[in-house]
Structures
1.
Amino acid sequence: MRIGFTACGLDRRPYYADLGVRDAKTVLSLETGITRDGNECRCFEECGVRPFVDLRFDKSLLREPGIVELYGEFCGAAARACPEVREFSVWDEPNCPVVATGSNSVVYRDLLETAYRQIKAGRPDALVYNGGMSVNGETWNIRDLANAGGLAFTDAIGIHPFMLRAKSVQQLLDSLAQMFDGDPQEQRDGRPSLEQYAMPYVVTEWGIPCALPEAGVRRAHSLIYAGGVELVDYDLQADMMVAGLTELEQRRTTLCLLMLEDQHAGHGPIRHWSHFCGLLEYLEHEDGSFDWRPKPSYYAVKEWIGTHQ
């Protein structure tokens, strides 16, 4: 299983080299065009990292006439303009209402099919994945996409197995197993588990949850650094990260992109996306500057990579 990073800047390059990571996720968007972001792809390539590109557009355009065809043309053009990129995902968490308001399995199937065909037409060597599916109770899921015929247009099943409610290693492993195998009621109803699709998986985003009390989860953004007291159990995070990586590897996962730092998609430190933790601790200095410091999970993942890749 290849290990990479998601939502992290080029200034973290020393950590790539130290961990031996060779993959990193970046974004090309319909609104900003290909040139600027394409240059970033080449920068990743120049420092020995393979860029994994998430192709997306703002959710407000979802209801615009002709958006499916326009998006497909953009995806095809992006693939041709970035020959150094071999792997693409079609949008990100398309089943999450916050990310893709108004989307459903049929609408997304149409987007996925068009993007897949356009990319493959000019780049038959490219790998195209469905946008990583959030698994935290969204209104539709990978099984609905399969029923709509969408799995014919992805080279692997893309997932985001965050498991936000896990507070121990065993809870994390139990949640991952249920995600892949389905719960007993679903099996009785004849609904297929992810494993039954017999396809490889790509984890295009994965961070483990903060080990916070239940009451603190909802207010973590104001509690984590309140009074300078850290409420996150970093040793537990390290154990959960190693256990989760091992489980994912055993589930035919070919690529797993981790959150390198305690932030998400450039929106700020852990106080913004408080329920996901990366491998680097965010440190804010009195002068307003900030820095990063490796956590126990960083060293645990480094050891894991050394023995599994």
Note: Residues 105-122 form the longest helix (18 residues).
2.
Amino acid sequence: MKGILFTILSISVFASCKKSTNNNCINEQLTWEFQTGKQIDSLKNPDPGFTRSPYLYSINNGNNTVFIFRKIFADCPEVVDDEGYRDIVFQVPSDVTSFQLNDSVELTNARAWSQQYCYGCDGGHAITSGSIDGYKKSDNTAYQCCITCSCPSG
């Protein structure tokens, strides 16, 4: 009898819960930019407790063109710790008009990096597999790029 009462009570509790139909979520967003006269440097993560990602990247003055692709995760106010984003960055010499980075050596030389910023994420990793192709458009104000890489999830 107690089992039946518990089952009926459990069903009534779950049935009374109503999923909110109010969608206040901010949709996922993609942004991209390039900066000339810059370079990517890696640096030791200043947080000694963050052992899953001992390195971060920074963008400083230099002689390259640095590309930054950012995926901003969807953010729902009723979900705790779902906000965050992932960056994919790489650099090429400023004087090139097209590029193909197809192996681990080329990707390493381009300092290709994936960095994830969110609660519980494992931080940053060098991109060592995949390809990045691109060319400068004829008006010299934009690039067309295609990135296919294996980025560790975290």
Note: The chain has one domain: 27-149.
